[in-house]
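Today's session is about reading a structure prediction critically. Students often jump straight to the picture, but the first step is always the sequence itself: look for stretches that repeat, for charged clusters, for runs of hydrophobic residues. Only then move on to the predicted structure, which in these notes is written as discrete structure tokens rather than atom positions. Here is the chain we will use throughout the hour.
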Amino acid sequence: MTGRGDLITRTAALVRGEPTPPVTTPREPAREAAERELSKQLYHQDDPGLLRRALDRFWEWLGGLFDQAGSATPGGTLGLVAIVVLAALVLAALWWRLGAPRRTATQGTALFDDAPATADDHRTAADAHAAAGRWNDAVRERMRAVVRSLEERTLLDPRPGRTADEAAAEAARTLPGHAADLRAAARTFDDVTYGGRTADADTYARLRALDLTLARTKPLLTGPPA
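Below is the predicted structure for this chain, in token form.
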């Protein structure tokens, strides 16, 4: 507690105009007090939100990446942009030409997934789907008719779990003249069944013609020449 004598001395100093000793605060308490003051919401009302800060960081990173890549690319940033546009055009052309990536047939993606049926049963079902404009179903049933017909003629051994690709490869051994058509038919089956493609009337017509042609084709029982 300040004594009366100290108070009188300070008052006399003020009357005489003498300077008062400055009030000093230790450094650490002063820093903590400043941090508490600056942490108040009043000083952060206009700060960007978390999403805005994240986007700013992303654009800063992307800008730095383009700057680095541009400095290493002939023509600088303009050359880099031209390369990116060219790559995008190439990818678009490949997508248009090849379509969506086709699922590769693996074990478990069997050609036949229902109760046993004859080749004529599959043909009847295929024609019914085609008459109704259900081309994907028509293609699937006609490919099953092709394979079942080869099994009924003992050109293929009946085997559960066989895929369309396997059936085409095995049938090509005794029907070498139609090997390419069989591979194309199996690829079409996979495209509409697993690859998200959509068949049409022409697709079905080609598969139907192959089925009828194979039914009249004499097999090469001795195998193709070496």
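Discussion point for the tutorial: The chain has nine helices and no strands.
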